[in-house]
Protein 1
Amino acid sequence: MKMDRRTFIKAVGVLGASLFLQTYKSDLAKALELSETKVLWFHGVECTGCSISMLDGGTPDIVELLQYLNLNLLYQEVLMMQQGIFVDGKPANTSDLNSELLLDEILENEKDYVFISEGGVPNGPDGTGKYLVLGGRTYKEIYEKAAKSASVIIAIGQCATNSGVNAAKSDVKELLDHRGIAFTMEDSSKGIIDLLGIDKPVININGCPAHPDWVFLTISAVVLGKIKVPDDLPYVLDRWNRPKVFFPPDHVIHDNCPRRGYYDRGELDLTVGGPNCLWKLGCKGPYTHADCATRHWNGHQSFCPQAGSPCIGCVQPGFPDSTRPFFVESEDAGIVGTHLDTVAGVAIGGALLAAGAHAIRRTVLKKPVDKEESAEENISEKTGGEK
Amino acid sequence: MVQVTIDPLSRIEGHYRINTEVDEDGVITDAQSNALLFRGFEKFLLNQDPRDAALLTQRICGVCPVCHSIAAANALDELFGVIEEVPKDALVMRNIHQGFNFIASHAAHIYILWGPDLANPAYHNILMQYGEMGNAVWGELAGRFMPIVNQFNGIRYPAGSSYLGAIREQRHMHDAISLVAGKMPHSVLQHVGGVVYSPTIADINELVAYVEKTAEFVEAFTLGVSPDTWIENTYKASSPQKAVNFVLERLQELLDNSLVSNDFSHSSGWGDVPLFAAFGSELVGEQLLGLPISMKMDRAGVYPDPDKIGFLSYGVFFKPENGDGYDPTSPADERVIPSGYMNGNLELEEFDYRIISESITHSFYIDEEEDRSPWNGVTVPEGDPDKIDYTKGSESRYSWAKAPNYGGIPCEVGPLARLMIMGEPLTTGLVQTFQENGYSPVNNYTRMIARMQEVLVVMSELMKWILQDLEPDAKVAVHTDLSMAKDSTGMGLWEAPRGALGHWIATGSDSMVTLYQAVVPSTWNLAPRNSQGIPGPVEQALIGTKISAAENALGVDYANPLGILHTGRSYDPCLACAVHTIDRTGKHPGHTIRVL
């Protein structure tokens, strides 16, 4: 089904221009001829924050995305009319109202759709997947069927990409066995599709939550053929299957942080609420690969360190274990070289060294005053030593 | 007897099932509320730096993360012993952060999650019996509330205008939060001892602009009158009766204008609230306004036995005039929306946080004790897959949610409970009106009207906090270091958009976490039976009500159980919130309740 030109022009008129139009201006003519792309969107072990984040998207917004790319969203728990309805244990009504019948029709008839995975997949207890049962079936079972017929799986958010908080260190972690799609924490052998033996290309859009631009522009690129799946994937994705354009291997958040100038002058905040660099408060910006500092969030206006919070590395594989404690300087936490990306470690080493030299001469530390001396020593020691 | 099951109940946060037994007259005779997912949450806070809690616990829920970060920050303030020094401007920032999220979360629930049920085909069939007027009203319902994914007889309809508008407004509210809190969901503002960002004068002006922008949507779509006019005549009305009269007069006026033309459009003044207020209720619509038809939502979602239900609010939004610091036990005069407990007969009682406990008798957990206080909470999840079975009925274990109790009584939490306890004039007046006319005062209709009203209440307070109370570039945090959390405890009582939220934390000699527990709103509302066998609020609200649209107006239709959907969704279910784990006592010493 081709997108009708008149409808398209009308939609653009009503909704107004957007960054999406600028980005894909030359592809507009092509978009008009796009055939319908079917999209399946599942929710597993998660908080629905990624769905909410997608509703917060503005360039394009979710409705523009669906219209411009002629996407047919077949199933999405938050945005659909249907729900599972059973009468005396048997599915009732029709797929117009019954999501379980809709799901069966999709699983039976559809293939080669874009499969958006939000949330992880429970494997516990004992591999049964019974920690999430929907309509009498385990999510694991439904997931397996859906994933087998997909053309590409786009995992959105930390729970789907790496299992995120659900797989954080705890004494029930092994029992629950919540899995990411292609990775669990940093382990690519533990993803659910590996466990189920499903060989499908996976694109990971990390983040807690994922940024709507990252997701929508990735979908756009795939649907418009800008990224050919699977042929182009080895070149456009990093070793965690993340698009390099949004998660640049050679750049970190620290590079473009608006507080960077304070860092270079050695003006480091020791308590929250101040205007200076957040390094001493545990900022993971120097180790975190994402374009947050240039793209910004929610209408492109701010991001965590700009609003006074140390970056907690929520896009990093292994989050939160690899980046907590959040408010302790990374070297003090003893995690450099174990979890954090070594490329970033090397890159930032030089910067730290330079800043350290400045800091010795020029550190202007804010309150509390009694910490001034030891903080200065720390900086020179750390930068001069380990790196 | 017919078994009707909704599994999953979609358009909520999380994964939820409702199972019912229905008799041949279409009356629900038994119900079980099942939380379907076990996630495991507080466990990974154990033995960790307590300061991470404000950022990590908000990841319990992506719809209302802000309340978790504030409840955690409140608990940390006490844990670190700085609760009396938290700067006033930090408290105002917490109010603003939470205020924007209340509006965004309510907008998401009313329009995106709950609204689409108004466009259910059952209402098409019911309304079409009433000629032009029915036709016009159905056109409005479908045109406003149709969700993005829908089909009728295989045909897809465009998403509703109000629905799409609400997505936009939620986005604006989140943009506003992001401005001062980095990003949304999972913003980063909250921290022990205050907040991490002090807004500039430019930020303050921008925040005002965001509220103004949403006020425009509210005027054009939600209310059909300016929010100021509405608030002056309801929230700020001199008596509950005056507030109700204002709304009834407004509805009568709209109706008089539309009866000839059958024009119920936004442009003729029928905002979404008036449309629902008139057609949602049998009492208001049919009896007071003389409409031929209504959705009869005031007949469902009621509690038959006042001895088995209560209403609870922990209180939310600090009073800026109280200056620095606050009382962690949240007594009524400390918060803008106060703490309080109201019994099933709607009598206000003094709130005592010490009598909160949770039962696991009907939940998939293993423990020798059936009831425990949050300070001594234990959660050992069922690990035997054969024992995880939702289908064995009310006498069995059937949910991953526990059953919280206040002095042994299950409680409804959320906007209706809060505004009744607050004595908000419109809510109080409505509840009284229902009572006086022989209706149950608490029902699906009053529950939804209270949620709509709370958006407006919070909007007006939000404007005050931004314009009057917030100082630019003020001090927003007191200094803390980890050693201050040694061998300590803290409690954070707050309100999520969907109800009472408490976080409890304890630390050991190394200042690391030894106990963390969150008792959350959807665990209250969607609880299974407690240890005395008393059904949870949503179960009580289902039993005795009818299964199909508008009190079985078109007969009994087991295959389209709108009655269950309306009642279940009227609580704004948020399941990720309700399923989590807590500390097991074996590994950590028992906790003594501190009497403050």
Protein 2
Amino acid sequence: MKTPSKLYFYMIISVLLLISLAVWSLNTGVYDFGGKSAFEVLGKLIQQDPDLSLSDKYVVWDVRTARIIMAILIGSMLAVSGTSLQGLFKNPLATGDLIGLTSGATLLAAVAIVLGGHFQQYLPEAVQFSLVGISAFIGSFLSMLLVYRISTSSGKTNVVMMLLTGVAITAIGFSVTGFLIYISKDEQLRDLTFWNLGSLAAATWTKNIILAIVLVISYSMLLPKGKALNAMMLGEKDAQHLGINVEKLKKQIIIMTALMIGTCVAFSGTIGFVGLIVPYILRLLFKSNYAFILPLSAVCGSILLLTADTFSRSIVQPSELPIGILTALMGGPIFIAILVKSKKSLA
Amino acid sequence: MKKIMLAVSVLAAVYSCKKEQNAKTGTQTEISSETPKSNNKIVTLNGGITEIVAALGHEKEIVGTDVTSTYPGSLKATAKDLGHVRSMTIEPIMAVSPTLILASDKDINPELMGKIKSSGIKTEVFKQEFTVDGTKKLIADVAKAVGNTDYQKLNDKIDADLKQVQPIAKKPKVLFIYARGPMLMVSGKNTPMASLIELAGGENAVSDFEDFKPLTPEAVVKANPDVLFFFTSGLEGAGGNEGALKMPGVSQTNAGKNKKIIAMDGGLVSGFGPRLGEAAVGLNKLLIENTK
């Protein structure tokens, strides 16, 4: 068992890396602040400098900073949800996108958008978002229950069943998206890439506040559970003997991951593989010690997504590369690596 | 050791991107500056609107356009191409520091609209109707937005051009096929193409649905068009006349049997701006040639 001081050391290193990435990201973009760096402009904004032009203010605060914060929040939640699910299912392949939670969320979010479009203009912004957010949460929650019911019996998860249930839910989600593509106009077709490959371009402070609230609620429940998840690896009976309320832990993980994935999908579409890549890399470093990888995945998820998003908006200026392309590019090979590693146990 | 290697590689990656960024920002595109009519810096996000602004003599004030703004060609050198209006994001628009943004209600997406609104830049979103009167109204509206009262001559030109359209005794049924890559769509009612076909003395072959729908062989056979109508770029992408004749169902129609395929420039056909009359006359000529 490693000491907590070691954990703090890695945490501090990761947070410093994240901060330097945020500074780099803030200074990256096509808008020119007339010789000033974006960082200086942000400083002036904080000091409420009256000379600051409205456009400069808007780009720094409402465009770039909002987007950076959104990348940090969503990346973090996607990684933590992946890590928690892997602890619950005791398997490195359990992530929101592979077992169908993301598709379930997308499905209901899309339905809410299509149906909600009719009376959207009469609702305040926060209510609109929460409508879609709540639908997405219900979608991921139902998928989660389905996967858990089908693949887990008497505390043992059948991994093949788990992944196949995910395939089935994804297929249903695909058919609904396909139908939406069919009924949408050519112009709206492009909006659907948002659902299939994700984007953080629509970041606003309203969305960030909602995301932050969800993050605080779920982390206060999940992050202290590292030791409990370590005990879970011994088997549910042994964990019970160690004084862990296994049923309650399972329920909390199910509800909180569904909530996190649902909210993230509602605001940023389908950004895959974050929940797979981050825990995988952390496992290489710390084995399966959840007391370490759970809190660290919260920071490293942010690092990964912020890097990916900054690339996505700077590689093909003035347009953007959908961020899901980048995360899938990284995640695909890792997925194969895990499969090769666990070839024996899956067969 | 592994951990150190990992950390080093991450840092190296970050550092190399930083360098690349610095190299990138060093090259700012030069904008040629002739005397504009006013101090406006305009971003136009629709082909037709771009044409109107240019025809009113404000071409030099346009600093950014969308991908559909192909006319006048001289804009390529002076205005930044901001890409497709559906996948556009706010920062590249802000980067050309516009004082006025002009868009059509038909194609701007609500997310981007929200961002533009909160950016505080003066924005006009015009209602676009694909009719002669709708076009004239759009011209008047755009003129008002750019502070120009001298727009009547544009509307007069449309009328003068439309007078040259010759009536066709037996109205040909025209099917517009929108080909983009492997996707084929046909245009139904209430599309710019249907409207232009009517103006040019033809009849839109599809009358049982609105907007665009994917092309199905049965629908093509049922519509039985006399002429197939494409964008020049779309026809090229579909493999020219040969490719068009091989499309599902086409061989069973009058147009397929008689090999009647016509194509016009996409910006001219769908713009519904100052060249509306020209577009109608051009299509009218093609239809007359192909219905003999």
Protein 3
Amino acid sequence: MTQKLVVIGNGMAGARTVEEILARDGDFTVTMFGDEPYGNYNRIMLSNLLAGVETEDGIFLNDLAWYRDNGITLNAGSKIERIDAQARMVYDAEGNGTPYDKLIIATGSYSWTPPIKGIHNPKRGYHQGVFAFRTLDDTRRMITYARRAERAVVIGGGLLGLEAARGLQNHVSHVTLLHAMGHLMNMQLDERAGEMLKASVESKLGIDVIVDAMTTEILGKDRVTGVKLADGTVIDCDVVVVAAGIRPNTEMVASSGLPVERGIVVDDQMRVQGQDDIYAVGECAQHRGDLYGLVAPLWDQAKVLADHITGRNPAAAYEGSKISTKLKVAGIDVASMGLREPESDADEVIVYNEPRKGIYKQLIIRDNVLVGATLVGDNRKAASLIQAFDRGLPLPEERAELIFDIGGVVEESPESMPDDAQVCNCNGVSKGAICGAVRSGCKTVSGVMDATRAGKGCGTCKPLVQRIVEWANGGEAEEDPAASWYVPGVPMPKPELMAAIRRYGLKSVSAVFDKLVPGGAHDAKSKMGLASLLRMMWGADYVDERDARFINDRVHGNIQKDGTFSVVPQMKGGVTTPAQLKRIAEVAEKYQVPMVKLTGGQRIDLLGIPKEKLPAIWADLDMPSGYAYAKSFRTVKTCVGSDFCRFGVGDSTALGIAIEERYQGLEGPGKMKLAVTGCPRNCAEAYVKDLGVVAIDGGKWEIYVGGAAGAHIRKGDLLATVDSAAEVITLTGRFLQYYRENANWLERTYAFVPRIGIDRIRQIVVDDADGIAAALDAAVEEAVQAYQDPWKERAEPATPGQFRTSLPLTVLPQVPVRA
Amino acid sequence: MKTLTPTVLGPITDIPLGEGRTYAVDGEMIAVFRLRDGSLRAVSAVCPHKGGPLADGQIDNRIVVCPLHLYAWDLATGCSQSGQPPISVYPVREDAGRILLGE
Ligand SMILES: Cc1cc2nc3c(=O)[nH]c(=O)nc-3n(C[C@H](O)[C@H](O)[C@H](O)COP(=O)(O)OP(=O)(O)OC[C@H]3O[C@@H](n4cnc5c(N)ncnc54)[C@H](O)[C@@H]3O)c2cc1C
Ligand code: SF4
Ligand code: SF4
Ligand code: FES
């Protein structure tokens, strides 16, 4: 049933929340009230408007047509005076009531004025030459007045004061900035950085800055003539702008009996404390004790609120925002995040200071995690620092890399790249194509990846794609709500998805779509991931819908660029026999296989087999499938080991074969490639495998996990050193099962292991700290028992036309055949 | 939509639910899909990107995803979702348990 949604406040948070709700197809009739007589504009841009670099038209976000087109009733210039939560009504100043089912309060803040003598005119609020800097009307009046003025004083040396001072320079010949604290932007910057900024503002912009300046009086009777400071100093001026801070607009809410402390108290769903149907977002909301005065947190809040209120994800939770700012403050680059100053001796502090150029950089590091950073005068590293700060990424040993681009890997800046520079080397996508996708409306990284296929090959270019999307978006990419989902078409992260699948007993892919997707929409791109998950969860009870499988898994061969398939027989541990070789050779000859090739995984690949010939080839080979196609356990590479090698200290070949025999065909969220090597010389490259085993002297084996040597290169982390092959086999199964149950779809171990942390994995898999080891062992044992060689499925096709060619009879791009 | 002489391609059970099969009709190669909602769609069999066999792709009730590079096309309109050329769509329906291609 369509519900009545009322929104009080038509500012940045209110309108954004409504946009998010519309984007989720929320079933509401929406009525909005805004105190200001306009549609919705970008308040941030008022600084630019004042500075004359933006026109009024340019700052509107949603004009009146947007409200009309979306069926939103906008009451602009209408102030709400009272909320009656009992009766579910809001009342405007004239006493007109509007009923609601759901109410969102987004009343923002007002500009706070310190108690200064003469600042208010008893008759007309502010003294006529005194202005606040908050609304479009404020800015318009300021500009009109300043045209006739000569000298301006700005009270407040925070971000807003600096912007006001800079903007006023456009209208008057002299500006003085007064700040009551010891240094500029004292909320964000430490003393050194604040002083550096002051020096830059004075020398580069020509604005006078006075710190420790307590303004006590505005002078002048009919018009402003100056301001007086506590120490008696008088500064002549004819216009004053107050930017001394903001306070949330909560009076009306508090007097309506709703809980207000510093702001309106909300829970993690942005619901007003103790209320079921009233929410608050934006600067007026107090969440976990914090108020936010920047827009980035509002965006996060708006999404959670929209997810929750539309039922798209009722459990969505806002957990607070890590505040970082990257701005040009009055034309000077400033970035700050986290701590301003170290808090204990254990905090590592790195400072770089170049006063002549006005450059200052300070980092605060705790336990190898960035907990604070301040940059003035050079923001080039800001983006990567913000990332490290937000995500708690591990930091490079060479700390200087954090502050400077030193040799080696210079982060390519999107700005400096030519339009035709190829970004994704797998899919041939240029920077221009990515920017084009952004211009035509894709605002999220994953949206752009979908539209262009950039980053969808080996994935190494993803960080660069992200930077370009952010740059093309003017600084930040919108966060993609789907980023945490297990598959794109079902709005749930993996643990929730698994819980829901269990709760409802969903045993097939289509059952999952029908039950868990709003509207029951099926999604082709999610099928494979769901099939893999369901098979892992239900084993033999899984209802196998063949269309949920990728073609590789439908015909048990790897599709090639010309639509043919490759056939790779099993060759455990890379060991074969003359008889097997002979058989493979005969089959290859009989079917005129265009190419016979050794794979990187120590097997023989027969390439270029038409689909309809697959069953016959399998029958003639009569060998088990080598699983060269599925997201599953692939191979165990081995070295010669103790059998023949002069150096071998462990029988790597035998152990590799034993592991492959046991875990063959095991499905997972990604491929699993393993290796066993007979000594640390590592001829089988075990250090760079999903799981690699290394024999070391004394009859012991080291187990490494999370290695990779593909598009990503990573040395695995040492999981354990054990005394016997049997222990290797047990821990291998336990680790693989833990990975199967907890990794995201297509998340290889090189991403999974660092995400969970090797110490944590060791606790679970080796030390059994969570008490789940037995369950993991049992689960993997069940999967092992369920193994069936898919190549046996040849006499009787599983579906009609399973092996019928899908290739047209026209000529396709030919794969070159090498002699 | 392209016009074709009405042709019976065979029993609908030739195509498993949610999958596609290729047919040669009037010298054209056509991929016919049987959606999970029971309806049929017919599009050109060859991916315009690099010749992928579209009948081997995965579908839902809206799109087909080519198995080679995973570009997607709308099954009803033939429009690409990823800036590729469109594919042709053909009228197709079930007629007494048989697949009937053409008007
Ligand atoms: C000049 C300036 C520059 C800024 N620059 C930046 C920046 O660079 N980066 C950044 O992140 N942030 C910046 N900010 C802060 C940012 O604009 C705010 O964080 C953001 O606008 C807050 O959004 P909001 O919706 O909570 O409040 P607002 O945008 O203030 O919206 C609240 C709306 O509610 C209306 N309202 C209030 N009470 C009632 C009522 N009872 N009935 C009806 N309507 C009511 C108000 O009239 C107002 O329109 C800047 C702010 C200003 C003023
Ligand atoms: S790594 Fe191999 S499979 Fe991947 S794009 Fe390169 S050649 Fe192709
Ligand atoms: S890893 Fe050691 S045991 Fe294995 S082949 Fe190389 S040198 Fe020999
Ligand atoms: S051939 Fe179909 S997507 Fe490339």
Protein 4
Amino acid sequence: MIKSLAITTVWSTDQERDKRFFIETLGFTERTDMDMGEMRWVTVSPPGQPDVQLTLMRPDGPGLDPESREAMTALVNKGALGAGVFSTDDCHATYAELKAKGVEFLQEPQERPYGIEALFRDPSGNWYSLTQQRESEELDMSKPWSGSVDDAGDDS
Amino acid sequence: MNTPGMARLRAMRFAKDAMDRDWSDPGLDLDAVAAHAGYSRYHFVRAFKATYGESPGQYLSRRRIERAEELLRSANLSVTEICMAVGFTSLGTFSARFKKQTGTSPSAYRRQHGRRAAAMIPGCYAMLFTGGFKEPPPASGSPLGKRPEGTSGGAPLPDGEERNNGEALRQRR
């Protein structure tokens, strides 16, 4: 029987830079940083969740043939890959805090049926959702649910 | 693997992200988008198309139509209001682009889909589904990694394609 998700992969085109991003900018905890010769094994965890680690894995590391390395690195750089959804108890506050630290956001916090959600990228180009789930944990289908209505209305 | 080709892909990503983020900003013209990539306008259009399969103007237009689809499904706004909200200034242009992209007119789309498909899919995935990874024309070979970096991807499109920009990417004359 599987008990839980323990480690998941984040493709990183610069492990040192991205480790700093997770720890210094996002406030994650360093779990492992081992030099294994041909590769470096780096894992970090969200501060409140020590049992799940993200491993920062080079897309051009050992184990892939040259063509796959190039294709994988291109996918990361083009921004094609997403690496997960992070939960927060205050999406607007976390958005403001991270944006002030220079995090590249793709979308400001918007109301969705499942909560409030913003989108950002890490320095390699992976995208993440930053979601504040509704307290009821149920979908709220009472509103038209299009975050762009208000935004667009302000502009016109 | 920090080759010039990869640096170019990163630069194109910054430009695409700016359009995904600021699509409703009327000031987001071609020069502004190219500046996000750190490219001159001329080189930018070619490089963007080689990376994502369509010109920046086509991409922004597609992104705005996708926003309009969401509004038509969910918002209590007239078609004209939605046209303005997503950054088009002409209802005729909006309707024509909408029909070209979705195969149906805005009002017919609303009749078919209205109030049915609220934003149930997390926004990040919705964004990805309609993201800038349009399939290249069939003639240009395998979809993944076949395009040589730094050169044009596939056969050049007719000149008219590059001028077929979204409204906020009107070229400054």
